[in-house]
Write a structure and sequence with these properties.
By secondary structure, this protein is mainly β. It has two domains: 77 residues, Immunoglobulin-like, CATH 2.60.40; 101 residues, Immunoglobulin-like (Sandwich), CATH 2.60.40. 9% of the residues lie in helices and 49% in strands. The strands form three sheets. Strands 1, 2, 3, 5, 6, 8, 9, 11, 14, 15 and 16 form an eleven-stranded mixed sheet that branches. A five-stranded mixed sheet has the order 10-18-17-12-13, with no helix packed on it. A two-stranded antiparallel sheet has the order 4-7. A hairpin with a 2-residue loop joins strand 17 and strand 18. It comes from Rhodnius prolixus. This is Immunoglobulin domain-containing protein. InterPro entries: Ig-like_dom_sf (IPR036179), Ig-like_fold (IPR013783), Ig_sub (IPR003599).
């Protein structure tokens, strides 16, 4: 058994008995705010030694290792949350003091995607996925389609395109754009744009569609565009056409 002294300062004999490796709720702590991409040091309640862990929303503590202070460089939104330090009591054998720190990360929205390029067979369903984080929270989120139309989460566009958010982790969200039936005319760049009070974040995913043909209306527009280009080149360069 290890005696854990909860919090800082003179506890007046208030001790909590816990099995080795267990966790306790600290009565005191600190709040630290840092800008995304910056660096921060989390102090272990003034102790020069300590073991750090990160506390999940369910109370589970994941060990991070020793260090006093705990240094985090190039801070990400995903690193915001509750941290706990266990520091030895200098005048008591096998006695440890716990200190909680809540880390808040703020700044411009950050948008990332694992795959910046996708290939889909014509006629198949395809989903484009990105993750965005913002603190303060996002004020507007939209997908910009190759057709120059925009669609926000919870809404749909033509061709069976549906935008939605899948999951919510504190300041971070997963955004998905589902295309029910991939078509040649839907190939191109899909951009997710996120606004907040601190600025705007953006990511672009390129979709390539293979094995299909354009529908009649899209083919007509494409042919009209080529005809216009041919007329332009004929007038300017004396008959040279484009294909």
């Amino acid at each position: 058994m290890i005696a854990l002294i909860d919090g800082e300062g003179d506890m007046g004999g208030a001790e909590i008995e816990a099995a080795a490796g267990g966790s306790t709720e600290a009565a005191s702590g600190a709040a630290v705010e840092v800008s995304v991409g910056g660096a921060v040091q989390l102090e272990c309640g003034g102790s020069e030694r300590g073991c750090w862990g990160r506390v999940s929303t369910t109370g589970h503590v994941s060990p991070l290792g020793p260090g006093a202070p705990l240094s985090i460089h190039s801070v990400l939104y995903q690193q915001a949350g509750h941290y706990r330090c266990y520091a030895p009591e200098p005048d008591r054998l096998n006695a440890w003091r716990t200190h909680n720190v809540h880390l808040k990360v703020t700044g411009v929205p950050m948008v990332v995607a694992k795959n910046l390029s996708r290939v889909a067979e014509a006629g198949t369903l395809v989903s484009l996925t990105a993750e965005y984080c913002a603190s303060p929270g996002a004020t507007r989120v939209v997908w910009l389609l190759p057709t120059s139309r925009v669609v926000s989460p919870g809404h749909s566009a033509s061709y069976g395109i549906i935008a939605h958010n899948d999951g919510n982790w504190a300041d971070c969200h997963k955004a998905q754009l589902t295309i029910q039936e991939a078509r040649i005319e839907l190939a191109g760049d899909y951009s997710l744009l996120v606004w907040s009070g601190r600025g705007i974040g953006q990511i672009t995913i390129r979709l390539n569609v293979t094995g299909g043909t354009m529908d009649s209306s899209s083919a007509f527009c494409s042919q009209q565009f080529i005809s216009y280009k041919n007329l332009f080149y004929k007038r300017r360069y004396g008959g040279r056409a484009v294909k």
